[in-house]
Design goal:
Four copies of one chain form a homotetramer.
Chain A (H helix, E strand, L loop, with lengths): L3 E6 L4 H11 L4 E6 L9 H4 L20 H6 L2 E4 L5 H11 L5 E4 L9 H8 L12 E3 L2 H9 L3 E3 L3 H14 L8 E8 L14 H4 L4 E2 L7 H13 L5 E7 L6 E8 L6 H16 L5 E3 L16 E8 L4 E8 L3 H15 L16
Parallel strand pairs in A: 1-2, 1-3, 3-4, 4-6, 5-6, 7-9, 11-12
Antiparallel strand pairs in A: 7-10, 8-9, 10-13, 12-13
Chain lengths: ~350, ~350, ~350, ~350
Amino acid sequence: MKEIKISIAGASGITGIELIKILDRHKHSKIISALSRTYEGKEISKAFKNILSLKNNKKIYFKSFFSKSDIQDSDLIFLCLPPGKSMEYTKYLMENGYNGKIIDIGSDFRLNNADDYEEWYGEKHILKEMLPKFVYGLPELNKEAIKNADYLANPGCYPTSIILALAPIIDLKSLKFNSITIDSKSGVSGAGRKLKDEYLFLNIADNFFAYSPLKHRHIPEIEQELSKISGSENKISFTPHLLPINRGIFTSIYLNGVNIGEIKELKDKINDSFNNFYRNEAFIKLIDDDIPKISNVSGTNSMHISFLIDCRTSAIKIFSAIDNILKGAAGQAVQNMNLMFGLNETEGLDMQGISN
Amino acid sequence: MKEIKISIAGASGITGIELIKILDRHKHSKIISALSRTYEGKEISKAFKNILSLKNNKKIYFKSFFSKSDIQDSDLIFLCLPPGKSMEYTKYLMENGYNGKIIDIGSDFRLNNADDYEEWYGEKHILKEMLPKFVYGLPELNKEAIKNADYLANPGCYPTSIILALAPIIDLKSLKFNSITIDSKSGVSGAGRKLKDEYLFLNIADNFFAYSPLKHRHIPEIEQELSKISGSENKISFTPHLLPINRGIFTSIYLNGVNIGEIKELKDKINDSFNNFYRNEAFIKLIDDDIPKISNVSGTNSMHISFLIDCRTSAIKIFSAIDNILKGAAGQAVQNMNLMFGLNETEGLDMQGISN
Amino acid sequence: MKEIKISIAGASGITGIELIKILDRHKHSKIISALSRTYEGKEISKAFKNILSLKNNKKIYFKSFFSKSDIQDSDLIFLCLPPGKSMEYTKYLMENGYNGKIIDIGSDFRLNNADDYEEWYGEKHILKEMLPKFVYGLPELNKEAIKNADYLANPGCYPTSIILALAPIIDLKSLKFNSITIDSKSGVSGAGRKLKDEYLFLNIADNFFAYSPLKHRHIPEIEQELSKISGSENKISFTPHLLPINRGIFTSIYLNGVNIGEIKELKDKINDSFNNFYRNEAFIKLIDDDIPKISNVSGTNSMHISFLIDCRTSAIKIFSAIDNILKGAAGQAVQNMNLMFGLNETEGLDMQGISN
Amino acid sequence: MKEIKISIAGASGITGIELIKILDRHKHSKIISALSRTYEGKEISKAFKNILSLKNNKKIYFKSFFSKSDIQDSDLIFLCLPPGKSMEYTKYLMENGYNGKIIDIGSDFRLNNADDYEEWYGEKHILKEMLPKFVYGLPELNKEAIKNADYLANPGCYPTSIILALAPIIDLKSLKFNSITIDSKSGVSGAGRKLKDEYLFLNIADNFFAYSPLKHRHIPEIEQELSKISGSENKISFTPHLLPINRGIFTSIYLNGVNIGEIKELKDKINDSFNNFYRNEAFIKLIDDDIPKISNVSGTNSMHISFLIDCRTSAIKIFSAIDNILKGAAGQAVQNMNLMFGLNETEGLDMQGISN
């Protein structure tokens, strides 16, 4: 297998750095170019002393722009850019004759409908014609399309934690319910390295609170993908919260007003559905004897899910845990890359958990 | 005003110690006896070096049993005991001629119905005849009864964070909704000083997870009190989670399937109701420009509440934050004591927040 | 006792806010003016929701400048300002006829010698003539001078944790040693609310490191005060470190090359000296059966100290713990205020520890 | 290269589990047996949900004793056992004809002199005759001996953080100094999974303190190895402290009373010495523009070191950071295994840091 030649835009953000860490251990990849305006000219292990500490690694120097040869030689470009910037960059690459693949870890190509983008992100979409070419990259739900994709929209962290947990359940057409309430809790790395008062240690440690309680930008993405699975429109009440930890998302999903019927039967039905969806998936684990914990997935590309049926209140409770930087961003991006290039889906992703 | 002579059973647990800290600053109280089997014979500031550090304070030595004179002289006994032990202790006090007041910070006298106790706590109630004499101690909802109470059941920490936040809303008889979903997050001090693997630093730091997702013992207490306010039966779907911090509870409450109607009108109606309920309450603050944060209440007896109407999903979201050890336990107990003895309700409770 | 009328410059920093919290509970003080450019016009409990949550408190609105009447009416002005700003402000107050007292919680008047200031702070001292009028405010060492002071330089947080721990030992003229090595560890609140990358949660949590290892500005202050006690010049090797917590300083002091002699005798001598120094001090506690812990002092104005004699290496080890914001800043400032105004030294400072 | 067949005693402690995680990614190793009384019969990824989450991994079931074939077939046995247990186990293995290699991650074979063991560990050494056969496993100082070793004593975590940082400096025979003061700070994982009050989240979070300030068991090990390098006896004043984080050791070393001479010259000399010692070492990094941080090494087998010369106080300050579970335990053990079996020293140890 030849090496995949890779360039990265937005390489010094949290996702970009995590991506570089993974690719450093990936057998079939080679980073040829990494962009960062902040660290232009700096060697990566000088700027980020926690990575590439093995002396025999090749050196990467950040630069500000891709050279012509970067664009010509790259088999794959990762975009780790804020809203609005991915489409600008994609436009630029198209105009400069780039003909490799793109994985956008940003949010510009996740919504199929440009109007939704404009409503939720508050700005014009400047590359609507490319939207249909971007495949939504949840490998466990969309594997064949991903294998054939040239352009891939890597899912948001919250949507990953939600859609994969709900898919096997809302796929059950016989299951009826009144509403979906989702309460997610994320570590602060989800906000990247933003230098804002609210992300100071002083304001996060020993603290907890909800944020963006009405209009979080991940909502239309979640509803779009859920509706594809259920075949009808799904509205979700979604509330994110900030945890005083660095990594991890724990999501609690509540299906309310469920026609539970015979509990044993429903339980079997849901278990079967999970089996059908994820039996052969390396990164999804249905926890049947416990509840997922962030510590059990942090540092890995795994997702843990469990569900419970609450007869007393006619509700189903579903819990999921992921590492927001890995399965929720850079890890899933490499998983998608592996599929797009015909590699083993788990290549480079055999990290063990970091907790003790 | 004369001094209230106070004895405490279970004085070395987290709640007991916090109670002692508050009473140390209370103008009209005097601790005459404090029980702790673990620390029997030890002077309190030797056993707990973080308290009573001012040298001019009187010394308290823990003992294992109340003496006859303790029982005879006490105007008030606080019980800070695990489930099943408060009723045993109350029985013992009654049989030994105690005729002062009791505040039970434990859970044995919160449920009006002994059958509920037996169902949720899994053991016989041995003092059913006393249940009607215990007043449920949420001062903001139940002030007159508390003023006249001899026996008081201090509410649980989760129930406090939920009932006070919901009361002004479910009191609106015109408001209809399908279900109530409650997602609470508590600091580890809620579990007391239990020496269990799950409470080791290793297993809590950098971690987050749900627990007791189906049958938490605070559920019947919450439903009982909510139903009294709404006048009809309220079932709640309740899920507690453990935060990697010491103090504080943040609760997210979701009313689903609400007949919202004209949003401005509903908002005014709810605001008015909060005003009616809490206008004169020193410890309740409706936050109208933000969302409550644990850091804004930890170390205080205050509760912060906010609400939002989500038209898109026909939901109302209510957020509350309290310090679980203060407003959720020892602070509220002293607030109740003040009312029961005709004192200023805020006496001893003017602590400022501990965050920076 | 009449009320002390107080104005505060730099009122919205961490020290300023903590000062306001303490004064709110102080029986004989009244804040008449509080300056903050950042929060100009804002009511304090709106800007800082964790304080003054009791509704019956008077309201304070931040302003940008003292009015003429503020300057005329104040009995005491606290300066909570960064290096270089306290002297500017003091100059301004003098020029505008202020004739009350000043407590500078900043660093401009701690060094007796303007040359030292210029060497360590890197700027000219513009008010050298006032230096002799400022009394160094360590109440346990300097009480009589403080009682008579009009101008007071409140000590730095590290110096407080070091000087008080060393004083009774270096006061022993018979004790000889080769060197003093000091390793201090501080919570991040020591850096105030500075918005810098290094104080983001991401960069502090799960982390630890030394900083300013050669030239920390507290060094000359420590050496100046130690030399006054020992009567000869004391040089210290001092290294501060940053802890992933909000509050507290733990200092480890090592006297190397000590002429220990008979260990029992030396131990008694040091114990006696501690007794002589601090027997009647409300805020100093010599821990004889354990080692101080930050959790035992955080939230209080107390300082815990212990010492050990290591015969094997001819060293004495001294450990101290304080709350850097209280005994290390705002608490000590109020302690000094109490002395300067003839009040009980502990007034307003009876806070209990915040740990469980 | 054939597979190394490995058995592990004490496999479910923190070090044992970390070892299993590393070996899972090691190309030339196969775990044939893992002992844990606590988890006997349990499949490892059920007992520790954070590991081996990739479904295609082989399953390991914990057992209580090695079978005959385990002992016969193992090429290498790792001992992750508490003091006193490694020698018992080694004795047992010898008596049962084991003729493979042993790496003891415990402390029983680190001290060359059985008397030292008995003095510092307080019990008889039952296998003195084996002491000379155990090679002390600091690969960067002792590589050739390790390559030829059958029995290896893996260094303690504190000694690793200290000896490697000091070796190039005390090796300079022209350097004179009066004393060595060492102040180490460790994450709580250093204490393993011990269920003790002092390791509860309540007692560690927001806290910091020193422990074992006079007689920590790592002292004789450090002095023994330093003396081998310097060629004369080195006594150290060592004080460990507990950090409120899970992983990492930061050590501050102070050489006091140094004959500094011309600073530039001394600096070059030390730099040269570091170069001579570690030029070709993959895991040691001399940080020349900054100070090491725990976040830069946690999750890796790397050690970061920096040094500073303080002319003002005639001291040299040396700082080091390691991950106590990796370079301080399981990672270094695998590094030693690689050397003992003629493999690439970094095999299985290419983990990237876990911080963001």
